Amino acid sequence: MQQTPNPISETAFSSVETQALFRKQQQIQAYAVAGSNFYSIAVFSLINSIINFFQGGIYFPIGLAITQIIDSFSYVFQKEIPSASTIFFIVGLVLNLAIFGVVALFGFFIKKQKTWLIPTGGVLYLLDGLLMLVFQDWIGTAFHAYFLFRIWSNWQAIRNLSDVKNTPQSAIGSL
Q1: Is-contact 69 130, C-beta < 8 A?
Q2: Backbone angles phi, psi at 16, to 5 degrees
Q3: DSSP one-letter code for 57
Q4: Pair 118, 110: CB distance under 8 Å
Q5: For 138-163, what is each residue's pLDDT tens digit?
Q6: What is the pTM of this model?
Q7: Rounded CA gap, 65 and 28, in Å?
Q8: For residues 73 and 130, what is the distance between their CA atoms, to the nearest angstrom?
Q9: Which residues, other chains included, contact 49 with Cβ-Cβ below 8 Å and sequence gap of 6+?
């Protein structure tokens, strides 16, 4: 899926209304892609937790490091204190579900054009990427950097389209 909208060519045959309509469609597309990035992060984090639950040996580096840490602590505590293993499992599950839910809500509300969630989510994903870096997970760090680039690119496209939208009509017409 395309990450940033193609620029609209300015021609003498395009009306101001048509240009505005194209920009609005591009903006909707940019919000949809930005929200999908957060959905992807939530889904792959959930898949990682399911894999961890079944003691799988793989993971998706796009997922969150914090959920992997929670899974690890939950697993270790379940093994170390078998009498409370159910409690540790439930605590880990609830924490992970809360994190998945928040990331998915970011995706949902970004698609509803809540722009401020894009940089906020980007900063949180950056912090999660730093956890990957601390644990020397170079592949995970690289994927986090790539998704941060995607988040940044979409945020910039949305901001640029919003700036054009707020330009006075006379300036748009003179283009």
Answers
A1: no
A2: -60, -40
A3: S
A4: yes
A5: 999 999 999 999 999 888 888 887 77
A6: 0.78
A7: 30
A8: 19
A9: 67, 68, 71, 96
Instruction: For residues 156 and 115, give the distance between their C-alpha atoms in angstroms, rounded to a whole number.
Output: 11
Token readout for 97 is 């579900």
Tokens of 94: 């609830």
Cβ count within 10 A of residue 171: 9
Q: For residue 33, what are the CA distances in angstroms to 5, 108, 110, 150? A: 10, 11, 9, 9
Residue whose tokens read 């998704």: 147
What is the separation of C-alpha 136 from the centre of its chain, rounded to a whole number of angstroms?
Answer: 22
Q: How confident is the model at residue 173 (pLDDT cuts 50, 70, 90)?
A: very low
The Cα–Cα gap between 115 and 72 comes to: 34
d(CA 46, CA 66): 12
At 89 the three-state DSSP class reads: helix
pLDDT band for position 172 (50/70/90)?
very low
